[in-house]
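Revision sheet: C-alpha cells.
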Amino acid sequence: MLENYLPILIFMAIGLFIGVALLTINRILSPSRPDSEKLSPYECGFEAFEDSRIKFDVRYYLVAILFIIFDLEIAFLFPWAVALNEIGMAGFVAMMIFLGILVVGFLYEWKKGALEWE
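Predicted:
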C-alpha cells in the first residue's frame, strides 16, 4: 500500500527541493540594498499610522464588499454563458432575476453615497 503513495511523496520532495533551491539562489544572487523607504510598511494606499487601532472609514469596507459581490457575479456569469443553450429560458430568467437583485443593491449603495469619498 505504501507504493501507492510513493509518487506523491516524490512529487512533494521535488517541489520542496525546487522551492528551497529557488529561494536560496534568490538570496545569493539578488542585491540587497535596504533603505528606510523600502523597509517602511505600506498598506492599501494609507500612510503608516502611529496607532494600529485607529478606525478606518466604513466606506473602505463597503467598496471592498462591492468588489467581492461583483467578482462573484462574474464567477456565476461564465458557467451560465457557457451552458445557456442547455438551460433554456428558465436559466435565462433565473440569471436576470439574480442580476436584477445585484443591480438593485448597487443602486442602493450608490444612492446612499457609499461610493463617494468626499
